[in-house]
Amino acid sequence: MPKLIGSTQGLKPSQINRLNNLYRRRLPPAEVLLPEQARALAALSHEIGRQIGLVVDRKGEVRQVAVGGPDSLPHIDASRMRHGRARLAGVALVHTALGPSGLSQADQTALPQRRWDYLAVLNVDDQGLPGLVRVAHLLPQPEDGQDVRLLRPFMAGQTPHDMAALVQSLEDEFARLAPPLDVRAQAAAILVSVTTGSRQLAEEHMDELAELARSAGLEVRGRVVQRRQRLDPRTLMGPGRLAEVLLLALRQGASVVVFDQDLSPGQAHNLALLTDSDIKVIDRTQLILDIFAQRAATREGKLQVEMAQLRYLMPRLTSRDDGLSRLTGGIGGRGPGETRLEIDRRRVRERLHRLEKDLQEVGKQRQRRRDQRKRGGAPVLSIVGYTNAGKSTLLNTLTGSSVLSEDRLFATLDPTTRRLRFPQEREVIVTDTVGFIRDLPKELRQAFAATLEELAQADLLLHVADASNPMVEEQIAAVERTLDELDLTQAPTILVLNKIDKADPEAVTALVNRHQGWPVSALDPPSLRPLLAAIEGMAFGQNAGAV
């Protein structure tokens, strides 16, 4: 981490030397600044006409010096600062302000973004003399509707509090108030949705995002929905609201912020710059990819998930540190050689190419198995549907199998094939594929193309929908839309309205009338008899009858 950052162009060598000398001056942890330190800092800031910021650890040692403009500081990299669950950064920011102004809105916004122990502003008058010091720190709980406390202004050396003791007490209180993490969860998360649509629809989508988070092993600690007339092209939400989200994460002991909207590479980069702490900011696609990575069990599934992850990563590769752009050419090599970023991209392209070849081979093997099934003459029935609609449970009940089935999104990923026997020595081949979801990430759709080819070979599709889900209509539409995008609407389809044991009877009746679906409970074999008759009739050319 460079010790001197920011706008140093145009400064004299003597001024740069004085800036570097700031590292040799240890600040008192309890008092923020001594009078002689304040005078030297104010004089230098006035002389160069720019703000100067000092990043100071709890021992009083200066970790970084930042030189900004007349009214602002540059971005300060906090990636190597001490972080932990429900803990402050372990460093404070002390900076000058030319003129009598106090803490700016940018200062107060930076507090939760950087998790500074505290933020102090030293006013510099028009003679270059130090004025009042103004200090702000985060509050473990709101007080009078405020999240930040402003201490009484004081002159250097006359602080009204022992700042070292105050910071320690604040951190202890943050840790005490943060709920303990559930032993079944890997981390705690805050869910965020920024929308230009209706709040009700956003809340419904947040319910699904919460289920995705649970499937990924996250414990949801808070939800934030913001309606805007226009999304912020840089960060989706404004800096003030983002600061509120990060403060909520600090108070709740959350280490992950999940956006329901997909973040562009630029937005992801900007959010990473604004959250230099232990907070990880991800979007819905990343969350789904993480679930797939956890659940993939077969070689094919692992290859598909890795391909999807690399496709997602490729446009988001960026150089996060100039120090990574090292020269890698050998002795006598011409030019600067390849930067780390170029090497990363090349390696990703090479790995993608290899994965594509491996998946092509897997696809050929799957095609040979399909050809063998065709020669057997048995019709092929493919089960499709929204994730967690009960497809695997239905497969188990129909065929007497024991495929993994759980009440969570994307419990199973790998396609499964079983035989369903009817009387008169007739049978159909039943295949269960990965569940769909609204706005299925294109990276997943491309990676799972070989698996979804199973659907193109089906003689009959069994579309399973969760009749007990309040968003069942939207889920049915999402599956139909995905099938249409995949050009898989040629095969006849039976709509199965599952989980009627959990659904309102009147709602089920309305769904049956609206969609001509078959109401069943996959956990109740007798309820499947009419459906079995319909399947047999459509698979072997008989009259399926009516519901």
UniProtKB/TrEMBL annotation:
Pfam families: GTP-bdg_M (PF16360), GTP-bdg_N (PF13167), MMR_HSR1 (PF01926). Residues 338-372 form a coiled coil. Residues 379-543 form the Hflx-type G domain. It comes from the Bacteria. Its main location: cytoplasm. It is found in: Cytoplasm. GO terms for cellular component: cytoplasm. PROSITE patterns: G_HFLX. Keywords: Coiled coil, Cytoplasm, GTP-binding, Magnesium, Metal-binding, Nucleotide-binding. GO terms for molecular function: GTP binding; GTPase activity; metal ion binding; ribosome binding. The keyword Lipid biosynthesis does not apply. Belongs to the TRAFAC class OBG-HflX-like GTPase superfamily. HflX GTPase family. HAMAP family: GTPase_HflX (MF_00900). Monomer. Associates with the 50S ribosomal subunit. GTPase that associates with the 50S ribosomal subunit and may have a role during protein synthesis or ribosome biogenesis. This is GTPase HflX. It comes from Desulfarculus baarsii (strain ATCC 33931 / DSM 2075 / LMG 7858 / VKM B-1802 / 2st14).
